Amino acid sequence: MDLLVDVVGILTQAFVMLIIIQFVIGLLFAFNVVNPSNQFLMQVYQSINSLLEPILRPIRNIMPNTGAIDFSPLVLIIGLQILMAVLRSV
């Protein structure tokens, strides 16, 4: 059981890091700190987005529309943290 909790913990940390990287790159593009024509960052952003979109889409469908701010990554991070807390307590 400890091995399962450790593996899920590592996967949770990886997902959280990907979400943060996606968020930071999106901010850099949004505020024109980095030009979206930067091929390297655009490919990294699109790759991370293709990994996270199947997970974030159902969360977005459930949440109310908040306009320009997307809270689905925050909800996913909180959900992953709750999952880890439950697994650690079992």
From TrEMBL:
InterPro entries: CCB3/YggT
Transmembrane segments: 12-34, 67-87
Domain of life: Bacteria
Keywords: Membrane, Transmembrane, Transmembrane helix
One of the record's GO cellular component terms: membrane
Pfam families tied to this protein: CCB3_YggT
Protein name as annotated: YggT family protein
UniProt source species: Erythrobacter crassostreae
Lineage per the UniProt record: Bacteria, Pseudomonadati, Pseudomonadota, Alphaproteobacteria, Sphingomonadales
